[in-house]
Amino acid sequence: MAAADAIEAVVLRTLRYGEADLIAHVHARGEGKRGVIAKGARKPRSRLGARLEPFLVVQLQLIATRSDLATVRNVEIIDAHEHLRSSWQAQQVGAAALDLVAKLAADGEPNDAMHHLLRSFLGHLDAAAADAPTIEARGTALLAAFELKLLHAIGLTPQLGSCVRCGNAVGIVAYSAADGGVVCSTCRIADDAFLAAATHGAAVELLRDSLADIAARDLTDRADAPTLRALRTDIVAGTARAHAGVSVRRPL
Ligand SMILES: [Zn+2]
To answer: Which residues in 111-149 are b (16+ Cβ under 10 Å) and which e?
Structure first.
């Protein structure tokens, strides 16, 4: 056994293990997705358990072991995301994001773009959760943007600028999950999903604009709920299913 350096990580999910242990799946800076085990974390007096919960950004001190699961020696909270964790709606939105990272991130494969994107998303979702009446609308827009950027971070960026089959930039009417891009009226086949102009426009904006810009926008400037639903179903979920074999959770 050797002591390892401290790592920064987002807790994706936790599982009870044995009588009093806790296994946490985290996404760590410089390391990607990995599992860690906190021995005795579910005992009443343990200081580890309360610091290993989904949505927390933590600094982990690990003891390397022979198994895939390093043992947690100490945990310090970097970002508690209190608003997020006390809002039911924000938790539903955030859980969909953590779930997608858990499914799309490869074990032990560093992806710092993904790590920073997730931390940025959780920070903006936490700020949005402080305003209860608007969290559902703001949260869903942030989630759709996060999902598009996450596809980008793993090399599955949807082609939105021109027809994926002929390169035409005009007459876009559909989205092909199989081909990973928009399709014009000439090239459309029966398998392609209808793509409304509003949905196409929202996808272009949410992929292009920073999460900070999206979080700061007026609610009236935002794509409406049916547009975001279509975007998440046809573009995000369709692409994730066709190219990574994973399903996307519906938050609300
Ligand atoms: Zn075409």
So the answer is: beebbebbbbbbbbbbbbbeeeeebbbbbbbbbbbbbbb
pLDDT above 50 for 1? no
From the CA of 166, how far away is ligand 1's center (Å)?
4
State the maximum Cα–Cα separation within the chain, in Å, rounded to a whole number.
66
Task: Write the pLDDT tens digit of every residue in 121-156.
Answer: 999 999 999 998 899 999 999 999 999 999 999 999
Q: How far is the CA of 248 from the centre of ligand 1 (A)?
A: 28
**165 CA from centroid of ligand 1 (Å):** 5
pLDDT at residue 149, as a whole number: 98
* CA of residue 199 to ligand 1 center, whole Å: 18
- Dump pLDDT digits (tens) for 154-210: 999 999 999 999 999 999 999 999 999 999 999 999 999 999 999 999 999 999 999
Q: Which fold has domain 2-79?
A: OB fold (Dihydrolipoamide Acetyltransferase, E2P) (2.40.50)
Which tokens sit at 18?
A: 């044995």
Domains of the chain, by residue range, sit at 2-79, 85-244
* 160 CA to centre of ligand 1 in angstroms: 12
pTM of the model: 0.94
CATH number 3.30.200.20 given to 85-244: no
Q: How far is the CA of 89 from the centre of ligand 1 (A)?
A: 40
Distance 246 CA to ligand 1 centre (A): 27
